[in-house]
Structure formats: structure tokens, C-alpha cells
Fold each of these.
Amino acid sequence: MESVLSFGLALVLAPLFPGIILKVKALFAGKQGPPLLIKYWTLAKLLRKGSVYSTSTSFVFRLGPLVACATAIAALLFFPFAGKAPLVSFHGDVIVLFYLLGLGRFFTIAAALDTGSPFEGMGAAREAFFGTLAEAAIFAVLILFFRLNGSLSLAGYFSGTQPIAIAGPQGALLILAVVALFMLLLAENSRVPVDDPATHLELTMIHEVMILDHSGPDLALIELGAFYKLFLYAALIASLLKPAGLAGPLTGTLAFYALMAVVYVAIGITESLTARLKMNMVPKYILTSFALVFFAIILTVEIA
Amino acid sequence: MELVLTALGLILAGGLVPLPMQRWSTGARATHIALLAAGCLTGMIGLFLTWNQEAISAFSCTWLQVLPLALALDSLTAVFLLPVFLLAPIVALYGYQYLDRDVSPWQTGAHQLCFSLLIAAMVLVTLADNLFAFALAWELMSLASYLLVLYDHEHEESRRAATLYLLFTQAGALMIFAAFGLLFQATGSFTFAQWGQAPHAVKLTAFFLALVGFGSKAGVMPLHIWLPHAHPAAPSHVSALMSGVMIKMGVYGLLRLYFLLDEPAPVLARTVLGLGMISGVLGVAYALGKHDIKRLLAYHSIENIGIILIGCGLGMLGIASHNPAMTAFGFAGGLLHVLNHALFKSLLFMGAGAIIQKTGCRHLDQLGGLMRRMPVTGRTFLTGSVAIAGLPPLNGFVSELLIYCAAFQGVRLQGPDALLAMAAILALALIGGLASACFTKVVGIVFLGEPRRPLSSPIAESGLSMRAAMIVLALACVLIGLWPEPFIRMALHGLRDLVAPAAGSPDPLGSLPENLALATRMFLAVFLLLAAGRHLVYRNKPVSQGATWGCGFTRPTARIQYTGTSYAREVVEFHQPFVKIRTVHKPITRIFPSLTHYASTVEDRAEIGLHRLLVAPILRVADKLRWIQHGHIQLYIGYIVLTIAVLLLVV
């Protein structure tokens, strides 16, 4: 029951947090910014509208948003929010999780190519390339976690007797992992400095350009899927940052969501302070995160 | 065993009976398929009847009074026989409508005979239990497939590809027989079972010699050169059979030899694992750079052989380091991937064949928008694409997950093996991502969007028998994905007669199969719920059609779409210098540009290397020795006499 509740809470709260990013960016720009609940209003607005489909498209175009959102929700099934046991958990579930996200990416790209638009093709090509590199970096993180704690499931990482956390005995190594994961979060969720969710210049975009032709409830599904994906990555970092001793049902949850807010504020600050990278720098950026994790793995070899 | 032998007879009859009936084309084709299907069904029944028998059923006879032939059916054989029996009738069914009707009846008859011979030879290769049986079956397989590649023998390109294939397969066989010869010399026995007693050094030499031979058959980098030439040249259903089933015989030979030798030295495991990683990553990198759809699929076969070898290498590493869980996960993953790859790669080759047949075009960048014109081909090809990209909830993911689990087991090992296991995980992740990129490219460019060049005539869906074959295979991919438990157990069953079960752990896989099934079904439930929700939301909503948003550009044409070349450029460039890109481009220099052009091809490093290191020197030497060939018959007889005399004196 507790698992169902925490899963439901995550589903409901996920659209709240991107509002924090907008608020932080507005503060940096000296503006008041949109209300915190802006993303809920956006979803409601999109769900009320109808859709326009391009005559070039086939059923794949309609399948794209559905699969993207369904994979993101299914990925959240495995996550132990605030250390609560998740709905599903087994040895190897992290691999299933990241491959599910890969399935979402496959269909998002296919839907983009379905429009026949050169801009969307451009975004799709970038997403496919950067996504591949990011996936390799994420598996390096999984190797690191496996070496630290010998488990291959999110519940094993964060809710066992020996959770992986900065406060734990191997916290120093995890600083590297946290930095790398944060970099990957920015890359995988199309944030600055890899992509800019606010830009209006199609030539420079990745994710936003792929969904140019989606409208109405389909666009709402994509947005929702993106919120959940970002939520998942932020939750990974928040779980790593979680201090020991906050295990009570209420305090634990509160501390977890407070840390989540911190991660989103950090995203907002990064977006306010950095510029977008040139496209040919993005692979180097992602490989930097990979190098950080790899370094941490080498350090575990020394410890063992 | 008797049933499997009956199956062999029926399969051979499937090639011979249609021969006198060729004037009645439909009847001959139907007989061919019916006999093949009957044979394969009988074989499959035979497999399932012996599935749980502890005893290995064997059969032996003497051929020409001197050659003892021995056949045996053990668990490894059964696992490799299953894809043969499963795929052969489906591929033949596809061929029913795929083969041209306007070729001479004898050519069709010969094709059907070779097809039956190839299937029978593959069955015999897996059954063979001594040197003679294996050698005969192996050569029969090579020759039959060579003749099948030669089907379009009017084309220069086909002849060249077939000759290249024959060269590779014969050179490979030379290596395999050299290895067998060494083992025979060391043990004095033709039967496989005795070869485990050979000395350590002989075992290692034999294994590496055979690795070259089996590797070239399987298409392991850098011995894969024939594959991307032979597959595009052969008819599509032959490509499907060769790529889906025949190249796995190389893997079978390697595994069979490995278990015969019973040599736990980690160097074997490390070599196989390393070759697997190279084939996997470079295979998919080259595939991304290729624009001929069948050549692209051929490179994906190399990639998938890489994945299979990674699985088997990890399994061998598990044996070497006495880790039963790693052994089980690695081999189960590798063996299951043999079946999975047979299913989705045949499906993809069939789809490619349908596209080529209907559009007359095999270059990705000239196709487009076929999903609406060929809905069944498009949907089944999409299914195969998701499966080959190793994504859940389809079958490719099941075997890759098992291999991941084996690799994570390996991370616990000490020393270089742990590093290799980590490299295997990263290689698998990279392969997965690149394969996704490659198949979004194929699906996106070929089936989605708009046609990239005007179509001469409206394109119709492919024939009923072709569609039926593709639908069956697509359903099989979905079935294994959603109901993986029996198939994982089946793959693990392949080890029953080869690896002694570890004491104390009755089930090395734990509850992974059940959990995986649960996870995929939960995803499916989420997806269906969401789809139902979407359906509800879209009720009474205005839905209209319009042109694709051109970002303010008002006169878009189909030619401004992204092409396969532009889609893959960055990824392929990332793999330099392992991948060589050659571009031909006339840059624009003046304010009013004249007509310009751009072409890029990706060249295979292994091919360039082979040419520079082996072919060119041989040709140079051969050129110098030209004077030996002068056309005087009496001197040729003199050569023979001299050779025999020298041999008699020396040996």
C-alpha cells in the first residue's frame, strides 16, 4: 500500500518540479516568472485541445507520444521513492528500466522522422547519437553501483541495509557519480547546456524540434513523459544525496522531496548561468561524465 | 533420432521431387514447400520427444565401406536445430512468391534442390559426431549455399560475391580441417568424444585454428568480408536463411569444439569475448554507414554474432572462473540470441526483399513513405527493428538482459577478467544504442516520411505468402518477448549435456525469467491503460489534417527530407579511424554556384587491410610465376611426375 501511495504521489508531483526551474530562471533574469503550477495548467490546456496531423504521417506518429509516456511511467514503477519499496523490483531491473527509456527514445525518433520535416530529422539524428553515448555513460554508473553494493536493482541501491549514499562509507567516490549523473540528467532531458527547452530556433534544438508537429493531447503525453523522465533522473541524484537517519515514513518522504527541489533548483541555476554548447562539443560533454564515472570505478578497484 | 532422420529424408525429397514437375511451376513450388514443412515438423516433433531424455541418442553407419559416419543428438544440437527447423519452412513459404516466375524452370528446380540440400546439410552439421560426418556436412553446406548465392548468375556482381564467399568458406574449412587433423594426430581418433584427451598445447592450437575457420563462417570481424557482399547478391529469402541460420553454424562449431576440448584456460574465453566486442561495436558502426538496405542488414548480422559471442565468451569465462551463475547467464543469453536473431533477422531480410521487389530500389536514400503503401511489410519490419535494437518488450531484449546479467556477475571477478566484463557491459550498451540509431534510420527513412523520388507506379503490398511469412516471424518475436520463461529455460537446456550442474544451486538463473515477464507485462499494462486514456481524451475532439510544419518555409519538397546518410553522419564520424569515410564533393566556390554533387561511402577497414596485406602480395608473386603456365601439356605431365617422385622420395 505504501508503495502504491508513494508511486501515486510521484506521478502527481512530477509536473510541479519543472515549475521550480522556471521560477529560478525567472529570478535570475529579474522577473517574477510563471506560477509554480504552470505545468499543470499547460497540461490541462493541451488536453482540452484537438490535434492537427500532417498528411505525411502514419500510425507511428501517433504511437510516439504514447510509448514515450508509457515507458517513463513504467520506469517509475521500479523506483524506491524516499527509500520505500517500489512496486516492482528484482535483480536486473535497472537494465530493464534504461532499456524501457531507450524504447521511448526509439519511438520519439521514429515519430519525428515520420513527419518528413528536415528539421525534425536533424533533431532525431542528434538525439540518436547523443542518446547512445549517454546510455553507455549510464551503464558505467551501473557498474560503479554494482561494485559498491553488489546489487542490480534500484531498490537494492537505495533501500537495503547498505544503501548507496553520499553519507555512506564510500561517499567520496559518489561525489564523482553525482556530478556525472547531473551532467547526464541535463543531457538526457534536453536541458542547457546540451539543448535548450526554451529556444525558438529550430536549427539548434534537439528534443523540442522532434516534437514540433505534435499537438493537443499527444503533446500533453510527450510533456508528461518528459516530466517523468526528468523526475526519475532527479530522484536518482536525490537518493544519492539523502542523509542517513531520516527513515521515518513522513520525515523520509519530506526530506526526499526537499532534496528533489534542491536538484531542480540546481538545474535552474545551471540553466541560468551557462550557455548552450556547440553541437560538436556535446559528445565531449557526455564523454566527460563517462570519464568521471570511469575514474570512480578505477578507484573502487583500488579499494577492493 | 529416427524422427530427425526421417525429417532429413523428407527435406531432401523436398528438393528432389519438384525436379521432374518443373513445367507445372505452381505445383512444383507447392510440393517443395509442403515436403520441407512436413520434414521440419517431423524434425521438431523428434526434438521435443527427445527433449527431456537423459540419454544422448546416436546413429552411425559406414559409408563406402571405409568412412564411419556418426551422428548424435544432444542438448546443444537440439538448441541449434530448433531455429533450422523453425525457419526453413517459413523462409521457403516466402520464396514461393518471391522468386521470379520468368526464369527457366530448371533454374528454379536447381534452386529448390540447393535450398533443400542447405537445410539438410545444416541439420547434419549439428548432428555430426565424428570428423567425417562433420567434414562432409560442412562442405555440403558451403557448396549448397554457394550455389544459392549464385542464383542471379547473369549479374557480374552476384558471380563476384559468390566467388568471394566460396574463397572465404573454403579457406575457413582449411583451417577447421587443419585443427581437426592436429587433434586426430594427437589422439588417434576420429570420434569427437576422444578429443578431450589431447595435450594442452594441441588443444590451444586447434582451438585458435578452428576459431579462424568458424569465425569466418559466422562473420566475426575481421573475417566477415564475404558477408556484406554475399547477402545483397543472394535472393532475399536465401539471405534470410543464410544470415538467420547458416552463419550460426560457425558459432555452433566453435561451441562444440570448446566443449569437446574441455579446456578451461581463460585465454579462450577472453579471445572469444574480445572478438565478440569488436564484431558487435564495429558491425553496427559500419551498418550505420551503409545505404544499401541488404548490406546494412548484413553488417547487423556481424553485430549480432558479436552479441552471441559476448554471451558465449562470458559463459566460458564463467567456466574458467568456476562461477555457475555467470556460465548459465552467459550461455543461455548467447544461445537464446541465436534463436532470436534467426527470427528477427530473417524477418528483416524478408521485409527488405519485399521492398526491393516492389520498388526496384535498394538504396535507403531513394525510398520513403512506404508505411502507408505497404502496411503489413511496414508493421512487421518495425517489429523486427525494435526486436533487433534489443528493446523491451520484444525478444532481442530478453537475450541481451541475460548477457548483461552474466557480465555483471563477471564484474565481481579479479584481475583482467573483471575489466573485460566491464568492457562487455559498455560494449553492449553502446551496441544497443547504435542499433537503435541504425534501425530508427532504416524505419524512418524507408517507411516513414514521404517518398524521396517520384514513384513510377503505385506501390502495392507484397504477395500473400510473403506477408504470411513476415507476420508469423513478427508474432514469434512478440511471443518470446512477452512470454520469455520457457524460451530462457530452453536456451539453458542447451547446456544440460555439456556442463555439470553446480552443486547446491538447482536453478542458476534464479527468478529472473519470471521477473522479466512480470516487468514486460506491467509495461504493457501501463501502455494499454494510457492508450485507452488517449482514446477517451480524443473523443469529440477536432482532429484535422495538414501539411508538415515547415518552420516558416512554405514550399517544402520531399527532397529536403533528412536522408540516411545525413542521419548517420555524425555517429559514423565518431567511429573514425576504425571506419573509413570517403566523400566525393565539389565545393561551392562562386557567388552563383554551378551544379554540384555530394557522395559519401563508408569503406571497410578489414577489406582494405585484406587487400593490402594478403591479396596484393599474392597477386604480385603469382604474376612473377606466370611462366609456369605456358600451355604445353607434356610439361604439365612432367610437373605431376616430378611432384610424385619428390613426394615418394621425401615423405
Amino acid sequence: MELLEGNNLSMVFGGLSALNSVDIKINKGEVLSIIGPNGAGKTTLFNLLTGIYSPTEGKICFRKKEIKNLKPYEITRLGIARTFQNIRLFKEMSVLDNVMIGQHCRTKAGIFGAIFKTPAVRREESFVRDKVMDVLEFVGLDDVYKEKAKNLPYGKQRRLEMARALATDPELVLLDEPAAGMNHQETNDLIKLIEKLNDMGKTVLLIEHDMKLVMDISRRIMVLDYGKKIADGSPDEVKNDEKVIKAYLGDDFRKENEGTDEIKRVKEARRTKEVKQAKEAYVC
Amino acid sequence: MSYYLQILTVIIINSILAVSLNLISGYTGQLSLGHATFMGLGAYAATLFTLKLQTPFLVSIVLGAAVAAFFGFVIGVPTLRLRGDYLAIATLGFGEITKNVLLNLKITGGPMGLRGIPKVTNVYVAAAALIFVIFSLGRIINSRVGKSFIAIREDELAAEAMGINTTRFKILAFIIGAFYAGLAGGLYAFLFRYINPKDFGFMRSIEILCMVVLGGMGNTYGAVLGATIITILPEFLRSVSPAIAQYRMVLYGLLLVIMMIVKPRGIIGESSLSNKKPKKLLEKGGA
Amino acid sequence: MVFEQIINGLTLGSTYSLIALGYTMVYGILELINFAHSEIYMIGAFIGLIMVSVYKLPFIVALLLSMAGSCILGIIIERIAYKPLRKANRIASLISAIGVSIFLQNAVLMLAGPQARAFPANFNVTNLELGNLRISSLQLIILLVSIVLMIGLHLLIQKTRLGQAMRATAQDKETAQLMGIKIDQVVSFTFAIGSALGGAAGVLVGIYFDSADPMMGFFPGLKGFVAAVLGGIGSIPGAMLGGLILGLIEMLGAVYISRYKDAIAFAVLIFILLLKPTGLLSRKIHEKV
């Protein structure tokens, strides 16, 4: 069953085309990964799907409903949740409170309820607390629920980002580079977590650079390069696609097996090239 | 009323003002430069209710607070769609517009203001109001609503992505803060028995801001402490040097700058202004 | 009659443009509203006043000295009150800017007293008549000086390496830094130039109304900001355009509702922010996610 469909999506920022006529389709229960070099438009696509930007062209339908002009909080309420590439936690709030925000759109206590602490409000708060602790247990953060988010180590912060998104009771979860900065063990734990999510019936859309993770967990992979979709298929199909190998996979995938330093060098070289291109495009 | 009792009453009224601005600016992160406007609206409304309709004191000040809250809504709806810097200017602008209107309307007495207000506020009434404000505010902060406020302050974009209707809640913070400020305004009017538009202008708004900054933004008890210090300061300065007391705004300006650079968390040190900007994506393409 | 109002509007508007340029340039690189700009304008006027009254210097010299003084003041303010907060969150910088503004305004108030001082023009003000239309030489001078300064700015921004660095920094600070541009220097220069323009505006307005007082920066500062927003904050041609348009609207409006003249600017502000917050000539500012 088709859960989310985006047709002919384009996003232009003041002369720069970040996305160009991209189609995307996600079926319920799938794990779809989006890969591509830096600057390919992956996060822009996420931002379109979650209402942070409005596409310059194209349509987006979630469960057959047009969502392209909805605000982010309305989209979250419909059942799409996301994490951020750069971790945007509520730093001064506790782990518990961060995740409780996720339940905001599923609850309704207002100021009068707050001031008078009616039984209904008490029940709602108790329910939310229990639910949130469940989510924290799921990601393995229940022991640190009182800590301020800013005091957590990096890996736990990433997990908190996910917990917060999961607390919104989503049907579709968008994870933006969840494995960034993780070591081997942490990545394996992440793979298990995503599998558990999938088993629970959640559909997962993933942006990632870690090829092992992507190949392991995805049912389908979509490849973006310079704002265009250049491939879409099963991991095997994509692995062997000429265009993909040339654009992105080849260098990195080969070097994936030759050690991480090489990858860093290549990525760095590509990033510098991208910066130079951006500079030429932007300055005067 | 003895001199010291009067000062204490003023400290309490200022505490209500500081605590209410703290809700808007400290907890929700929306910088408002026109908070005294709500105080003024509450003061004028409460006064007019009593002088023209002879409503009893309690009814008047609550109605006055409600009027202020209404204007919090009116001002909030257009301005809270704006980013922080624009919001600050917009609140300043509304303050000036309101003062302009108050100076020109006949019913508000124009530049002469309103006089002959009965003296009803005393230290007990004020204290009762403060207790009510702190209690209700505490409940709000610890609730779903309050957590939304803080989330908005911490990262408005992420808050919206997590399902919070940020515009609605920012407006709500404004309304609540305005209500409390209006309450304080009413108390003020029935203490000093005479009000005019100059009492509620930009200078007063900055004074309240200094109280919150001094005490630590996002810290309710800090706001009370800040209010106490800022209220006592002019009295203290007057005994040292009347000239400096008259120009204490110079000190306020310095205070704001120095506090931001040296102690952004207020003199107590435990508040909300974390020292880093929310991280932005480094380059334009991203992923 | 209408023509005279138009000339009045353009004259005043050109001073708003100069003020607006200061705001827009600083906002373009730091995303900060320099609240102290209105006081730099005021202090510029006072420097000009002192040069003209006390030292009896000719107008041009006084103007240049005033611009130099404002320029230095702007750099000092940036170093002391804004630079330490560059990494802090935005509210902190905003509060600091407000603090500087209040400090300066009241410091001058304390030192010079609240009364307005006369600001002699030091040259013969004559009225030129072209048929039915009348324009004073004072207005001509103000328009001329403003245009010269704006052209100068335009050349600086478009034709020099400094200008190129400023544009790059405004577009994308991190990339500009990767290219070897010294951000601190660019920021200082931007403040320097913006403040010089603000100071010039102060002198021009002081001479126009033959008056300088410590509170004179408050309303023109706000109006200059409105002009900057009207034209599109961050856009230099926008600031120039916005100032002129605002001046015209204000003058034409003053004919009908003179008592609320100052409120016109606020009304314009609210109008723009509701309808097209990015302004007339804006660069669309997307928050990066």
C-alpha cells in the first residue's frame, strides 16, 4: 500500500535548483534509503516532505492527501516524524521533557487545565509519562531520563533525537543521517533499532552515507545527485547501476573496503570541490 | 503608608512585572520591548472601570488585566509570526503607538492622565497578587503548555517539527504575560492614585527588562530578585548622588551590555540562555 | 504645492536612506539589528554641531569629520558590545544592542542636557525658483550629498575587493572564511561605513531642521529601520529605495493627518511585515536546516 508519494518535486532557492523533478514513492512497511553525494538535495527533500519548505513545483500526497502546503506541526500530527542531521535537541530540557514534547500533538491540556490540575489533566500527564518512559526504554535511554539533553554524550543525543520523533506516534519516520559519527558497534545497534521499528509496523525513510548500514537494512534505495534522481531500486540493482557507481557509489564503495581514512580523504576532496563550486556560483 | 512599606509594595508590583516578562522573554524566548504597555493598558482600564462604572477594586483590576490580555492577543497575532529581532522592534512600535493614542484620547485624560483613584493597594493586596501569579505561573511552566514554551525558546524550528503550533503558543505566552502585567498595572494605579502615559513608556519597559536580565532569564525567583534590586537602586542612588539617580538609564544601558557579556545567566547563574546558537547546516547543499 | 511636498519627502527620505543603509549592511552580515545606530546618527549630528559652532569649520569639513567620528564610534561599539557575543544566542546580542543604544542616548543626555541646540547652516540658504516650483538650496545640498554618498557606496560595494569581500560575507560567512576572507575585518569595515553614513545623515538632518538634541535619534532610527525593512533587509539598493519611498509616504501623509505623522512609519512597518515581510527588493532568507 502506498503511504507517501511525491511527484515532480522541484525546489529552487533564489536561482539555485536544489531539487529537480524528483519523484518519490514509499510503501507502507518499507525501509527506503536515500543516498547521494553532499549537496545532492537529500535533506532538502526531507524538508519538503515535512513542510519546512514548500516545493516550487510538484505535489506530495500522504495517505492520498495533499500535504505540500501544510505547516510542519500539521504534518507531524498526520503521522510523519523526523530527526535532524545536526541534532536539534532542546538542550536545557531534560531527556524526559524532550521526549514528552513528542507527545504534545497527541495531547490537549491547556492553561486552565495546567493551573487547576484537574483529574483529566492528571490522567493525561500520567499516561504521557508512562508512554515516554516506554519510548526511552526502547532506545535505551531510560536510565538517564533526568539528565539535561546538553549533558549527554553524542551517541546518546542521537538516540534522544530518535526517541523524541518516535514519541509523536508516527506512521512514517524520517531519519537524517542517524549513523553519523557512530562507531561499528553503535551502527549495529542502530540497525537493530531500525529493524525493531520496522517490525512494529513503522515505515522508515533514511538518509545515510554509511553504505554498510544502507545495504543491510534497506528494502529499496533511491539515489540523488545534483538534485536529480539517478536510480531507484533494490540494493543489488543500485549497487550495480552504472550511473550510480560513476556518480557516487564507486569511489566510496570500493574504498569502503579499503579503510575509513580513504573515505575521509575522498569525502573531503569532494567537499572541497563542492565548496569551490558553490563559491563560484554564489559570490558576485 | 510608611516609606518602607511603600517601597516594599512597589517591589512586589515590580516583581509581578518582571515575572510576567520573564514568561514571555525568559521561558518562551520572545524578546518584548513593550511590556510596560500592557501594564499601562491594565492600569488605565482598571482606573476607568472604577471611575466611570464604579466597579469594586477587585473586579476592576481583574477586568483591567483582561483588557491587557486582550491587547496581548491583538499585538501578538501580527507580530509573533516574525523572527526575534523584528518582534522586538514591533513590540517597541506598539508601545509607542499605544502611548501616542493614550496621549490623544479624551477619555484617558490625554497628557494629564487620570487622577483621583482611590487608594486601595497595600502591601497585603500586592503580596496576595504576587502569590497568585507565582503559583499559577509555576503550574503553567511545569505543564504541557509550559514545556512547549521552553521548547520554542530552545529551538523554534524543531519545536514546530515536533508538532507544536509555535505561533499559537507564542501568542498564548503573550496573553498570559500581558494579563499579569495588566494586573500589576491596576495595582500600581490604585497605589499611586494618579497615572499618565509617561509612566508606561519605553523607559519603564527597559527597566522591567533589566530586572529580568539581572535576575536571569528563565528563572522566576531570579526575576523577583532582579525586581528588588532595580526597585531599590534609585533610592540607593538618590542618597549617594541625586544626579546619577536622575540619569540611571545610563546605568541600565551599561547593565544590559555587561550582563550579556559577563553573566548572561543572571547574577544567580542558573537560567536559560545557553551560550551556543542552535547549529545551522554548514553549507548550502547539505545532504 | 504637491511638488514641494515631493521635494520635502525626497529630501527627508534620502536621509532615511542613509540611516537605512547602516542597518541593512550590518544586518546583512551579522543578522543583528544595530539598535545603537540611531545614537550614532545623533552623535554624528553633535560632532557636526561642535565643528560648526565651536570650531567654525566649513560645512564640508564638519561633515567629513563627523563621518569619521561616527565611523570610529561604530567600530568601537562593535568590538566592545557585539563581537564577544557573536557565538551567543541571538537574544543576547539583541539585548546588548539595546543596552548600547540606551547607554549612549542617556550619556549624551546627561552630558549635554535635554534642550535642543541650534545648528547653524553656515552658508546662505536661498530658495531657487523654477517656474511655479520652489526648492531651497539646503534641500538641494542634502539631496546632492546623499546621492554622492550612495553612489560612493555603490562603487565601493561593486567595484572594490573590499566590497566583494563584504558581499561574499553577507551571502555565506563560512564559505567566505574558507576562501581566506578575514571576517573580523569585514565586519569592522561594514560597521565603519554604515556608521559613517548614519553620522552624515545626522549632520544633514541637524542642519535641515537647525536643531540637535540627545533624543533626535529615536524616531529617525526607527524610521530608517522601517525603510530598510521596506526595501528588503540586507539589500543595499533596497535600503536606498525604501528610504525615499518612506520619506514620500510620510510627507504626503503629513498633509492629511499631521498629528499622527510619526505613527505613519509604524503603520508602514506593520503593513509590510504582514504582507511581504521580505520587503520589496529582498533576497529570500531561508533558515538553513
